[in-house]
Amino acid sequence: MEMEISLRQALENNEFILHYQPKLNIKTSAVYGMEALIRWQPEDSKLIYPGQFIELAEETGLIIPMGEWVLREACKQCKMWHDAGYPLTVSVNLSAQQFQKHDLTELIAKIIVETGLNPDALELELTESTVMKEPKQAAYMLQQLKELGVSISIDDFGTGFSSLSYLNQFPIDTLKIDRSFINDAHENEANQAIAAAIISLAHGLGLGVVAEGVENEEQLRFLKLKQCDAAQGYFVGKPMGEELILDYIKKNT
Ligand code: G
Ligand code: G
Ligand code: NA
Ligand code: MN
Prior knowledge:
The protein is about 45% helix and about 20% strand. It is α/β, with parallel strands linked by helices. The protein has a single domain (about 1-250), classed as EAL domain (TIM Barrel, Alpha-Beta Barrel), CATH 3.20.20. The chain has an eight-stranded mixed barrel with strand order 1-2-3-4-5-6-7-8, surrounded by four helices. This is EAL domain-containing protein.
């Protein structure tokens, strides 16, 4: 309860910030996009990570106004990068509750108009469990979102329990291989096989594929060999605040 009140106040007092984690195109070695990750920065205290508040935000419905703030802030930031000459994409994580709200498409359409961001530059990250909750409704929702011109990626791919048949029924653009398959891929042959299989699955379906949790050169080399499209992880870049990220962009794009 106390935590719920603090969260509400944090939203009112603008205590949330976004960090951005880069995505690298493996073939061209260019950074092409950023994933927005929310953090809570209470006044005079340590940064709090989403693992500690997203669940509560979902349970209390606060995720709706919080998620709207994230979308608007990420789109604004991305437009600024574009205006500065860096045509990056921005990815926003959506929780199941946000995805189930019938006015999500309208909200995103409004934010795109408001910020002037090219919808091509916005990617929405959804987990398998989010899209599989109500598959029929999800298919309709994804279609509407696609019509806006935004792209859709499936986050933490490989950790859900859903059938694969949804992949060709939904208008999805990209699979993100969960970092648990990447982190120890160089010493774990089973995970190596899974990562390689997800890459061919994605390509077989005409989808892009991003590996998460790339922490060293060896993992990146493996992914390149398997023709994975893109990589994200500490080896490419940690999530960074607004100022660090601009320096990073200037040096790496
Ligand atoms: O870096 P990290 O601790 O930020 O992320 C932890 C988890 O929190 C990840 O699963 C990530 O998807 C989730 N997360 C980060 N930012 C957001 C956000 O803006 N909205 C939602 N729904 N989840 C987020
Ligand atoms: O579920 P989602 O993919 O949105 O989660 C992103 C989370 O993964 C964040 O908590 C982020 O800080 C973390 N993360 C990003 N890159 C790496 C990495 O290379 N290694 C590890 N262990 N965690 C990472
Ligand atoms: Na994500
Ligand atoms: Mn993920």
